[in-house]
Amino acid sequence: MLDEFERLILKVLQHDGRASTQVLSDAVGLSPSPCWRRVKRLEDDGFITRYAAILDSKKLGLNALAHVQISLINHDVSSIDTFETFVEESEQVLECASITGDFDYILKVAATEPEALEHFIMHKLLRLGVVRTTTTNFILRQLKTSGALPITT
């Protein structure tokens, strides 16, 4: 179980992963040493899995974002392993989730332009030999991209 200090630490770090121990300790009402020990424990216990910078996709020339729904041909171990290895190794795949319904997975994919996204689907994804069908929805505008999880206090 997380205590109040730890929940506050997590809230602050989700919004500013570069917050110094002093900034964290001021925000949560602890002195720096106990605050640092709590952050270290949160990391060691797997509550904090990594730190990352959130980048502007447009400034990087990634002007085509899409959700791609995937149905696999079959669900044997080999097919699933092939697909999941591809997802792990592909920088264009930003997110992947196993889902319920008519499809098996949904990907969030980034590309420089629609043609590059088509190339990714046709020449990489479908050539895996394990994908039955895909449905692609272009993201026209992202209303919220937080990444922060709700932490009740």
Classify the helix fraction into a percent range: 25-40%
Q: Main sheet: which strands, in order across?
A: 2-3-1-4
Instruction: Describe the global form.
Output: elongated
Q: Could you name the ranges where pLDDT drops below 50 across 5 or more consecutive residues?
A: none
CATH architecture tag of the largest domain = 2-Layer Sandwich
Condensed summary:
GO terms for molecular function: sequence-specific DNA binding. It is built from 5 helices and 4 strands, in the order H-H-H-E-H-E-E-H-E.
Please give a structural write-up.
- By secondary structure, this protein is α+β, with helices and mostly antiparallel strands.
- It has two domains: 4-44, Orthogonal Bundle (Arc Repressor Mutant, subunit A); 64-138, 2-Layer Sandwich (Alpha-Beta Plaits), CATH 3.30.70.920.
- 38% of the residues lie in helices and 20% in strands.
- It has five helices and four strands.
- It has a four-stranded antiparallel beta sheet.
Which terms summarize this structure?
Alpha-Beta Plaits; 153 residues; elongated; Arc Repressor Mutant, subunit A; four-stranded antiparallel beta sheet; alpha+beta
How would you summarize the topology of this molecule?
Elements lengths: L3 H12 L5 H8 L3 H13 L19 E9 L4 H13 L3 E6 L6 E7 L2 H12 L5 E8 L15
Antiparallel strand pairs: 1-3, 1-4, 2-3
Helix pairs in contact: 1-2, 1-3, 2-3
InterPro entries: ArsR-like_HTH, AsnC-type_HTH_dom, Dimeric_a/b-barrel, Tscrpt_reg_AsnC-like, Tscrpt_reg_AsnC/Lrp_C, WH-like_DNA-bd_sf, WH_DNA-bd_sf
Keywords: DNA-binding, Transcription, Transcription regulation
Protein name: Lrp/AsnC family transcriptional regulator, leucine-responsive regulatory protein
